[in-house]
Please model this.
Amino acid sequence: MKQSTSLESNAPGTGEEMYSLARRLFPICRSLTGDGVRETLSILREIIPIETHEVPSGTQAFDWEIPPEWNIRDAYIKDDTGKRVVDFAESNLHVVGYSIPFEGRLSLQELNEHLYSLPEQPDLIPYITSYYSPRWGFCLTHRQRETLAEGTYEVCVDSTLEPGSLTYADLLIKGSSDRQILISTYVCHPSMANNELSGPIVATFLARQLLELKNLRYSYRFVFAPETIGSIVYLSKHLEELREKVIAGYVVTCAGDPGPFSYLQTPNGDSLVDKVTKHVLENSGEEYMLYDFLTRGSDERQYCSPGVNLPIGSLMRTKYGEYPYHTSGDNLSFVTAGGLAGSLALYGRCLETIEQNATYRVTVCGEPQLSKRGLYPTLSTKESGKLVRRMMNLLAFSDGSRDLLSVAERIGEPVWELFPIVDRMLEHDLLERVD
Amino acid sequence: MKQSTSLESNAPGTGEEMYSLARRLFPICRSLTGDGVRETLSILREIIPIETHEVPSGTQAFDWEIPPEWNIRDAYIKDDTGKRVVDFAESNLHVVGYSIPFEGRLSLQELNEHLYSLPEQPDLIPYITSYYSPRWGFCLTHRQRETLAEGTYEVCVDSTLEPGSLTYADLLIKGSSDRQILISTYVCHPSMANNELSGPIVATFLARQLLELKNLRYSYRFVFAPETIGSIVYLSKHLEELREKVIAGYVVTCAGDPGPFSYLQTPNGDSLVDKVTKHVLENSGEEYMLYDFLTRGSDERQYCSPGVNLPIGSLMRTKYGEYPYHTSGDNLSFVTAGGLAGSLALYGRCLETIEQNATYRVTVCGEPQLSKRGLYPTLSTKESGKLVRRMMNLLAFSDGSRDLLSVAERIGEPVWELFPIVDRMLEHDLLERVD
Amino acid sequence: MKQSTSLESNAPGTGEEMYSLARRLFPICRSLTGDGVRETLSILREIIPIETHEVPSGTQAFDWEIPPEWNIRDAYIKDDTGKRVVDFAESNLHVVGYSIPFEGRLSLQELNEHLYSLPEQPDLIPYITSYYSPRWGFCLTHRQRETLAEGTYEVCVDSTLEPGSLTYADLLIKGSSDRQILISTYVCHPSMANNELSGPIVATFLARQLLELKNLRYSYRFVFAPETIGSIVYLSKHLEELREKVIAGYVVTCAGDPGPFSYLQTPNGDSLVDKVTKHVLENSGEEYMLYDFLTRGSDERQYCSPGVNLPIGSLMRTKYGEYPYHTSGDNLSFVTAGGLAGSLALYGRCLETIEQNATYRVTVCGEPQLSKRGLYPTLSTKESGKLVRRMMNLLAFSDGSRDLLSVAERIGEPVWELFPIVDRMLEHDLLERVD
Model:
């Protein structure tokens, strides 16, 4: 994959392009099911050739069952004067996700049992859902809630909960090996930007970059599905193949803000994806956070469950729960073009590392004589000294038992600095690949 | 063993009952052999159905030979005026254990070669024995020794050292498995309370509790024998069976004072008994001490010797050597009802953990849907949140490879908090046992 | 090897004898090839029966080829007045090693391109070589260089670079096993004392001591060869045998100064030679330095290269690069008789440890009764208490799975304190050897 340098650095303007996509997807009312998901996926399909699938309501998937499809056209609370004081048209967060249809007039006291607000974050609208117990409700800022006067309110939730289907999409980019890297992200949250729009956007652009590359070593499987039930449905359909082929993967989420990176490890923290991601973060020279699987919260809960047991980590920026998550505070000003583009580049570096990682063995006994091959720099500088040291150390530890990543860790170098040196050593037949 | 909650907590008054037993056993003059051991065991037999065994003097046991039986009726030192200045009747510590018979009149200088005292602990009578080289002697406080005037003393040791037998007792409580837990303690010390009466007392009450339980998983073997030679004799008679069946065990000693717990590990420190005891202590919320096998001092020296190699640790309170040990300071005011009862409860928790420990595997792929089974608390509180987290983490890490103890360590929970959750998961067929 | 106590301590005067040898070898102009090497080896042959070998120029050895043989008779720079301002006769460091023959008159400017000095160490003559690109040059102190006036200089390098041979020597001291310990050192540096004369001197005296011993367990292979090309030639001739037989070894260098010891570990740092040397250093009670293989710099680069993969460390005093190395500062006042003798003794202790290391198993079940064998000291002192504890701990951990070195590490004792105890236990049949 020597042509693949574009995995590690973005074309100019990529961040802005990603941010534009966020702006376009933001207003759509997504949920576990329904037309919002379909609309979202069809926009992504303009960029990458994902294939969309529909699975009927009521279908069993492992321990779960696909719920009815939910769609909503309008919802509001009107006060005595007929004024819409809470209006779905203003923000789709105002309605509890999967609210059942309702029309009626209620006292403030009755209404209050259907209202959700955050006393400790009084300016934010919370994001609330009730997928599996039928209820309706409205979410609003606590500050607004406190202004609601006694009186009678007219409430309307013009929604439908009917047999339909759950929608997801996937894409397989084939490499020379049928071993797969799984990239999974979710498309079930309404107007929030970091969780979740950053996920599908980074995944989409990553797929676009991979599609441009020739000579991919591994195959890449992208999944865009509603969280939890979507990944469970996907797993139930493909478990055997995934178990056989997937060697590493990520759940992409919370990857759009400009904060430091964080990585949620697999249950044992020692699979290839863990080693690669921790190496890349540790050698990035930047601050980052490492999280144990005990703090999991997204689809790794399904992918890494004991019965499934796939090696999937989650590379994020500011982790869910560590910012005004699941509120109206997670909006288009929380994510940035630079945040999105930086995530794309870091994912690129991780995938590049997986692609390039291999086990090499030095072909000669004793140290090779580098000078007769012109491999010693003719001018000795601090930089050339570093290069020679890297080259000698690479050769000294490439014994056919350590992979390149382990060599990099052992000799204390970023693995990506070794890629071009490996290429030179291969050209000169000083290294051979053994796996 | 779901009925076995009584292992982890004592019936009211148990501590006082244990302390009464200590008071009753205290005056008896025990030694390696002799009637004191028999009397002690016959008192314990009032509580639990131990079986007593006699092994003749001269019998070979591994590298050792059972010494003659020692009994003593009276012993004293009289001064010029005929007054008993040192009298066995006052404290059986006054006579060196295994003293040969003697009668005679000695100058103070001659007598001094047979006297033992502790200049640095001048108010305590030391405990001294001479099992394998024939001599007689008296022990007294250093303060008293300094008051002995020049003059002639009349000395009498009315003891016998004759062919007889070594006495020990054992008890096997059968569980559904023939795998055994070995609980060994010793009965060869005269009037001292922590070392050794706490040992036989805690062991006796532990056996009494186990006898009351139905559905024990493991079998429990209790041994009451003189230290060193007794455990060697026991091992020499049962080595093959013990090696085949014993999966864990303890030497019970120094378990009656109110000090913090301490645990002496097996030679490698990584057997089941080590893992269980360290987990229980670490999660007790209380201070404790961990000791390496290099600081061993009791019958684990035999049980863990290379040729025997049983996985036996020693759970104590204040360890021998860390308090006025082997002196008259180890008396009935050094141990307490609470100290004894607390040890009983902690041993109970350790055994309960061994009983309940097993390897489980979650039965579904992906996360189970808990709400449809009513396994989510309906009221969300801080406590219920903790319970859900424990339940989810238990399911996430029960992959059929880790036992429950390892799961508890991995998810950072006391294993005993998982016992009732495991029961609920088993009822709902969400976990299955794999071992 | 019970007679071998002379390995651990030197005969009186050994240090002085070693230092005399250094004085004698110092003036000789050694290089990769040439008569200086031959003269050096013939002096060593007066002490130990090494065998000298000649390998023709142009011979291939792995990735390398033996260069032409270099000899030099005279070299100087004369100023306008005909005075020799730089003179090979004064110090053989003045000429760049492997300088091609040259005669001519040069301006100061032209001359300067052939001069080497150290501005930051202005009083030292640097040691420079140019084995594989043909050039000539002179080395001088920076202070002298600054005094060179403009003018014309007459330069003469009376050297020859002609087909000849590379010279090395070796010696095999046979023990009862054909497993070998490899001791390698180099003989290619001109007048420098720590690097390299300390290496061949310590190796020579070590060989002399081993030759005096009866009952060696292992065989010892000594190699005296020019650095890099010499060890490569040696390996290319003996690789199969070395790989089959060598279980441990050292590159001896920088072992003559009085500074603290340092040890450069093998690539994985966990082979026998690493364990032994680190144990010996750690228990020496003295300060020492441990170096990773990343800081390698001598023939371990060849011995430990992946295609060769021998378990060879390097035990030094002040490591190359950490003192005025490769300069005229590395002279006879930098090394001392005590420094040389101390290195010899420490190498001796390491070899003694390798010789004595074995796996033992206690022969009895339970603890042996030591008193009946007179193995308990009759007088109890602090020293005797330590001895009993060592003896009991040795027996408690000699389970037939740990070797003596591991037992020593486990029980926290210097392994050499266990050697005499092991001997006593073997005499009493309390230990048996299992490997």
User: Anything to note?
Assistant: The mean pLDDT of chain A is 96. DSSP finds twelve helices and 19 strands in chain A. Residues 1 and 12 of chain A are 22 Å apart (CA to CA).
